[in-house]
Amino acid sequence: MSGARLHPPRSSSSSWAFPIFFFLLSQSSSGADVGSGSCLPHDCGDGVEIKYPLWYNDSTAISNASTNETICGHPDLGIRCQDNKPLLHLGGDIYQVAAVDYEEGTITLKDLDLLGDDCPRARHNLTLSPNIPLVARDVSYIFFFFNCSEKPIFPWYETLYPLTCLGDNSYGLQWNISETPWNAIWGVWGVCNASVVSPVKKPDEQRWNLTTDFTRIVQTGFPLALNLSEAAKCRECQGKNWTCGYVRNRTITAFAFACLCNREGGTCTSASGMLPDLISFSRIHRFGLPGLSPWGGGGGGHAEKDTKIQMVRAPPLRGRIRVHET
């Protein structure tokens, strides 16, 4: 691995471009001392360990300084504790975190609306926005149809089960693939007043009897896969005995991935206790440095797409950038 000094572009704005860049870095590097224990694993009381990319979201979990916020996990995976249970909010709905397998990268959720009732009624679909790093894999789906004026008609290969305990002419349909069964949707058009789709764990057997088993099935929960684009960066942080997290400030409105310095591990190189690491050219370009293109050109220093840039702390408004070829 070779190192090279990257010089500012030869332009009329070069005299102020880099001071602004390092000022912005210093803003995102000041704030929480993560060695205080805020990034340590947490247990709400039921044995499920909460750690990166999940994080314990209480009133003190977000470090609010004058210019930045720091969290110890993905912004959309904050966990709150209630009655000793870890809860996750997704799309305005609440799910209990039943289990997390950090090695396999899976999280098992239970819809809070379906728990504690011998005959639960599904009230909403699962909503996963593109920003949430969760993917539905190895799941089946149950389509619930409520308040039907008559039994919907489906093709012979679809089995519709009456959900008699609900008492409102409701039915359930099992669907084992991710594609929407449009024949099922059309089958209830004008017949049923409402429908809800609930993900469930894929069954060991081919088919369930939803009339007798749907309560057990929906209360078991369903797995989602963690799909983190920053996984490689996080492994590099952890290899330095640092902590993975996210920061944002007044300049950057969205949270950005960062390595959080661990004072207790003795690896702190920033007086503030936090240092964004492996700043990419795309991050620099977001700061609006004139004359410097993310992938070279524009009179600035050239770098290939896979080049990594590491910030080295120096006196205020001074610094060096190391360009590491990968």
How many distinct folded domains?
A: 2
Largest sheet: 7 strands, mixed
State the end-to-end distance.
7 Å
Percent in strands: 25-35%
Q: Which percent range fits the helix content? A: 10-25%
Q: Quickly give the structural class.
A: alpha+beta
Shape: elongated
Q: Could you give the order of the helices and strands? A: HEEEEEEEEEEEEEHEHEHEEHEE
Question: Short description, anyone?
Answer:
Keywords: Glycoprotein, Signal. With 326 residues, the protein is an alpha+beta fold.
Layout of helices and strands:
Blueprint: H1 14-28, E1 42-43, E2 49-50, E3 55-56, E4 63-64, E5 68-71, E6 78-82, E7 85-90, E8 93-101, E9 106-111, E10 134-136, E11 139-148, E12 160-162, E13 171-175, H2 182-187, E14 192-201, H3 210-220, E15 222-226, H4 231-239, E16 243-249, E17 256-260, H5 281-286, E18 308-312, E19 320-324
Parallel strand pairs: 3-6
Antiparallel strand pairs: 1-2, 4-5, 5-16, 6-7, 7-8, 8-9, 9-15, 10-15, 11-13, 11-14, 12-13, 16-17, 18-19
